[in-house]
Design brief:
53% of the residues lie in helices and 7% in strands. The chain has 372 residues and is an alpha/beta fold. Bound molecules: zinc ion (ZN). Zinc ion (ZN) binds at residues 8, 10-11, 13, 27-28, 30-31. Residues 8, 10-11, 13, 27-28, 30-31 line the site of zinc ion.
Amino acid sequence: MSNEYRMCTRCVMDTTADDIVFDERGVCNYCTEFLERSSHVIFQNPETRRKELEDLVRRIKKDGEGKRYDCVVGVSGGVDSSWVLVKAVELGLRPLAVHMDNGWNSELAQSNIANLVRKLRVDLYTHVIDWNEYRSLMQAFFDADVIDVELLYDNAMLGVDYGQAAKHDVNYILSGTNQATEGMRMPSNWNWFKYDKRNIKALAKHFANITLKTFPSFSTINFIQYEFLRKIRWISFLDYMEYNKFESMGSLQRDFAYKPYPYKHYESVFTRFYQGYILPEKFGVDKRKLHLATLVVSGQITREEALKSLDGIPYPTDEELAQDRVYFLKKMGWTETQLSNYLKRPEKAHDSYPSEKKLYTFCAKVYKTFKQ
Ligand SMILES: [Zn+2]
């Protein structure tokens, strides 16, 4: 294997993904696998898709009879989840919007969510995370030099969404996860397994000497309990419609006074500082590539447009990066030296500490065999 830099000739994935391989035309395994796995979803026959959506909506309504809500929609303030909420209401569903506030939401995200639920007349439940506990956990992840600091947000969000669904006896969580804009597989060296409560607990104990108190964690066992015993289904709702991010954005701006963010997932100040600065600087990972590669392959932008977007730093402007850097230091209580020391230290693997990734892989294998 050579370590030479190379980029796919069809999408924009490159050798920063550790298991990328190229065929004789220079096309990578990421976009090839994505097309094999997701073409039937993205390029589905419109008639079939419409019918599947009708069936799903009918099922949700039926299972929700006599209940206050028939589904939970997790909203981050981003386009994908906002669009799920709009479509759910349009289709006559009765969603409860659920939002998690981990202390890093941008004002823009807050106002986008507020406008949306007001105009749609939807109830909103906001779970505000205990900031002191959350900051200690973040600090533990930084001290551990593991890549996926956002595991904390993603894990807690699962805990909150499933928890609210269970509380209101609702069987469906409609999510903004979808094939058309994020269906390409995340390289395994770019993030970590999201149901890993054990990993969070271990890092918290080892680096901050704390146990989880109010953090709404989510484990593999929780997943099995919710999905199989309580029969709560996680639905990638946008896969049931022809989802074009740019058209949806236009409609949100027109009808819901929605204000866009410059990049995907930039609704949280930490997420943008993490994706735009920490990931590229410390871990050599630029997540824009995966997102843009997906949009190229699903036909929403051209490869040239993607390459142009990749030009320059993963931040709207240098000033905004500088602002977020100051905000981050202040909120975490760090000095410049602490940040630069953190960025210089080498990465450590999540599974140098206890983890339930193997447990999940094992359960998934058993389930698959059983199902066959
Ligand atoms: Zn490719």
